[in-house]
Write a structure and sequence with these properties.
CATH superfamily of the largest domain: P-loop containing nucleotide triphosphate hydrolases
CATH class of the largest domain: Alpha Beta
Shape: globular
Number of helices: 16
CATH topology of the largest domain: Rossmann fold
Radius of gyration: 24 Å
Helix content: 40-55%
Structural class: alpha/beta
Length: about 400
Amino acid sequence: MSAMTKGISPFYPGQPVPVDFFVGRQKEIEKIARAVRQVELGKPQAIFLTGEYGIGKSSLSGFMRFYSEKENHLFGIHVFLGGATTIEDIAIKTVEAVLKSPAYEPTVMEKVRNAFSKYIGKQELFGVQLNLDAIKADSPNISHGYIPFLRQLLERIKDEGIKGLMLIFDEVNGITSNPKFAHFIKGLVDENALSANPLPLMLILSGVEERRREMILHHQPVERIFDIVEINPMNEVEMKAFFNKAFQSQNILVNDDAMSLLCHYSAGFPKIMHIVGDATFWADQDGVIDKDDALKGIFLAAEDIGRKFVDQQVLKALRSKDYHSIMEKMGKLPFDLSFKKTDLEKGLSESEKKKCNNFLQRMKKLRVLSSGDVQGEYIFNSRLVRLYILLNAINIHS
């Protein structure tokens, strides 16, 4: 099966997973679904969806949006806040998300766009062109009257059977550093709860735990408004179901040895699973993924992640030659996810030993490492990053 005759890759590295390819997360889905049902009955809910980078928060949010629209008659608004730094930015991105939402129900979207026609420019073949000047001009008023804006939206579409709204704030990493964001979120929840007729609103914030703690630091009452839904790495059963479903969609089989390798190096992280799966998909030539195909895919994926993450982010942050040397020597330790600081120090020069502790702390901040359960133990957060550091250490002297 050459690359020329292959169909579309069933993997989506760097993108949220389409609903058709969503697998697993049953416990998390059930918890959010209970809250969604409460909103359908008229009771507002707020959830903070948390988990490590690459764990699938955006994909689960997107799936729950689809689920709530189909099963609970909510209108979903998935707002990606990457690049937003002010409350006005949130207003702008909200309007954009409302008007560019996928048209699960065309008649609903038609009413939405008619209601906010002043924010729409000319119609295009594949969607709408927004009038950004009009949106920006109104953003201060929308940001100060966010609940009234959402209420107006619901009023325009409730005769289509819409019972409430799901509002997802995704990619919150930048905006949480602004203290006003925490106050904005708390004010939004309180204003709605204390109104005579609360808006049926499912509010979901998606981010790592550090961002929730950052919000609490800015405004202590934030810790009381969210139910926490934590996403953990997928277990082996879920990983196998994911890989099998994806490959089978293109009539490709995966043998047991290959599946073990794919699961082992993905370590339950959907982002890594998509990168590994995509690389393996293109490595396969005969419609059967065997051990050799899996290894090719894993090495290609390690190089891809290494170039994007280790080379572009980690090495640039670690400018010291001693730091680079320490990382090279760390790569040559016995291949395992964990190691002890004392073992690393055995191969270091005196100058490097003095900088070793700072190096390890920097690597933790860069999310390459985390602390183990035993004092002096460190754990790589990704097997592929660990593999790339090993390959890089070998290539330097090859």
